[in-house]
Amino acid sequence: MNEIISDVSATLKPISQARGLPNEHYINDAVFEEEKRVVLFDNWAGIGIGSDVPNVGDVFPVEFAGMPLLVVRETEKKVSVYQNTCRHRGMILIEKAGNVRGTIRCPYHSWCYGLNGKLRSTPHAGGPGRNLDKSLDKEKLGLIEIKSYIYREVIFVNISGNAPPFRKYASKLINRWQEHDKPLYHGGAESAFPFDVACNWKLAVENYCESYHLPWIHPGLNSYSRLEDHYHIEEPGHFSGQGTKVYRQIEADNGLKFPDFEGLSNFWNTGAEYVAFFPNVLFAAQRDHAYAIILLPQGPNRTIERNEIFYSFNPGDRPEFQELIRENAELWKGVLSEDIFVIEGMQKGRKGVHFDGGKFAPVMDSPTFVFHEWIAEKIDQSRCSNSTK
Amino acid sequence: MTTECLNSKIMQAHKASDVDLLGQLYLKAGRFFVGEGNIDHGCFLLTTAYVFCLEAGLAEAEDARAILKQYGRED
After folding, report:
1. Partner residue facing A124 (CB), from B42, B47, B72
2. In degrees, to the nearest 5, what angle opens at C-alpha A73 toward C-alphas A72 and A78?
3. Which among A3, A117, A326, A364 has the fewest CB atoms less than 10 Å away?
4. Do A140 and A205 fall into the same domain?
5. CA distance readout (Å), A176 to A171, A234, B33
6. Residues A216, A323: one domain?
7. Residues in chain B within 8 Å Cβ distance of A130
8. In terms of residue numbers, what domain contains A117?
9. Which chain A residues contact residue B72 at CB under 8 A?
10. A15, A154, A236 from A369: Cα distances, Å
C-alpha cells in the first residue's frame, strides 16, 4: 500500500473553507518527484526560448527538473527538442550550448545523429571499420523526440506525451490574447536576467498571479498603479493572474517610446495583463513589450527563474532603442527582484510544522487559489488512478 | 607524404582538436591504406574520417561514406 505523503483534500474545498497546499508540496523530495511527473511532465511546461538557438545547427542543453533535454534549431523555422541521451550507452550528448554544424556526435563511442534526430552512423559497431550490424536498425534508434511547441517565443514541452496538442491545451489563453499573437523579438543579452532563488517553483507562480501584495512589496507602483486599478484573471484549470487598467509606457528623456504591437484594440492603450500559465510560465502582455518568466525547478527548495523581455521590433534593426531597452530591463529587474525575499520567505515559512497550508483571503487570493486547486486536482487524480490500478 | 608524416599531422590535429583537419587527414590515410589493399585498416581510418567530417559539416563525409559503402561497411 502506498504511503500517504501529503493530504490535498483541504485544498479541494471551496476557497472560503480551503487551505493551501500542505508543506510537503514545498519541502518534500518524494512530493517533488510526484509533482514532477504529474504536473510538469504530463502538461506543457516551458523550458527555454526560441532565441536560445538562433542559428541552424545551434544546440542548447536544458536539464528540466532533472530530465536532460536538448533544444536543436533543425531548420530556420523548426526547433526540435530531444532527450539529450545517446541511444547506445545512455551518455549525455551535449553539455554546452553551441553549434554542431549538422551532426550531434556522442562523445563516448561517436554514434552520430542528424539535426532531425535520425541516427546517421554507428562507427565500428560491427567491428573495427565495420559500421553495420543486422540488429542495429537506424530507423528505430534515432533520438527520442519530445513533443514541443513555441508560443510567445517560449519553448514548451510535454515530456510524457500525454497532454492534448499545445494549441488545444493553451486555447483559452491563445483566444484571450489573440490580439497579441504577433511576432516577438528578444531584446538581447541585457533583456535576459536569470534569478537563482531558494524556493519551490510554485511559490513564484503564486506570488505572480495575485495583485494583493503589490502595495506592500512594490510600493513604487502605488503612485500610478493602485491596487484598485487591478483585476483578477481566472481560468480554472488553465491559468490565473492579474490585469491593470493603468499601464504606463516607459519613456526616454527625449520622449522616445517603444513602438506598439500592431493592431491592438483601445483596451491595451492603458491595459496590461500578467498571467501565470500553468504550470511554470509567467507571461506579460502589454502594448509595447512583453515578457516571459520561465521557472526551472532545481529541487523542492531551489528554482532558476529565467526572465526574458521581448519587443514588437527587431532591436538589431533599431539602434535608437538600445538605451531604452537597457533601461527597461533594469526597471523590470528591479521590480521582479523585489519579490525574491517574499518567495524565499514563504519557503522558509513552510518549515513551520504547524502551518496548515494557509487560509486564503477569498476576495484577494482567488487567482492563487485557482493555481493551488489545479495542482491539488492533478495530484488527486493521479493518486486516485494509481490506487485503482 | 609518408605514413609517419601523416600520423604526426593527425596527432597534432588531435592535440589542437581541429575537427576539420582530422576529417581530411583521416580521409587521406584511409584512402592510402585502401589503395594499398589493406581494406580493414583503411575502413577503420575512413570510419574515423566519416565521423569527423560529419561533425565538421564537411562535404567529404560523403566521400568517406561512399568508400565504406563500397566495402559493405556503411549504408
Report:
1. B47
2. 115
3. A3
4. no
5. 8, 12, 67
6. yes
7. 43, 73
8. 46-150
9. 132
10. 7, 25, 9
Q: How many angstroms separate the CA of residue A123 from the nearest CA in chain B? A: 6
Which residue matches cell numbers 519557503? A347
A180 and A144, same domain (yes or no): no
Residue A162 placed within a domain: no
Q: Does A90 share its domain with A184?
A: no
For residues B33 and B45, the answer to whether their CB atoms sit within 8 Å is yes
Q: With contact defined as beta carbons under 8 Å apart, do A240 and A67 qualify?
A: no
CA distances, A168 to each of A78, A174, A317, B32 (Å): 20, 9, 35, 59
- Where does the pLDDT of residue B72 fall: very low under 50, low under 70, confident under 90, or very high at 90 and above? very high
B44–A128 CB contact, under 8 Å: yes
Q: Which residues of A touch B56 (CB under 8 A)?
A: 101
Q: Which residue has the cell 502506498?
A: A2
CB-based contact A234:A374 (threshold 8 Å): no
> pLDDT tens across A250-294, in order?
999 999 999 999 999 999 999 999 999 999 999 999 999 999 999
Regarding whether A280 and A206 lie in a shared domain, the answer is yes
Residues A145 and A179 in one domain: no
For the stretch B22-48, pLDDT in tens is 999 999 999 999 999 999 999 999 999
In a domain, A284, yes or no: yes
Contact A288, A259 (CB under 8 A): yes
Residue A20 lies in a domain: no
Measured CA to CA, the distance from residue A282 to residue A293 in angstroms comes to 5
Positions in chain A short of pLDDT 50? 1
Whether A118 maps to a domain, the answer reads: yes
What H or E segment, with its residue span, contains residue A64?
strand A58-64
Residue A276's domain is classified under what CATH number? 3.90.380.10
> Maximum CA pair distance of chain B?
32
d(CA A282, CA A214): 16
For residues A123 and A269, membership in a common domain is answered with: no
Contact across the interface for A129 and B56, Cβ inside 8 Å: no
The answer for residues whose C-beta is within 8 angstroms of residue A12's C-beta and 6 or more apart is: A18, A373, A376, A377, A380
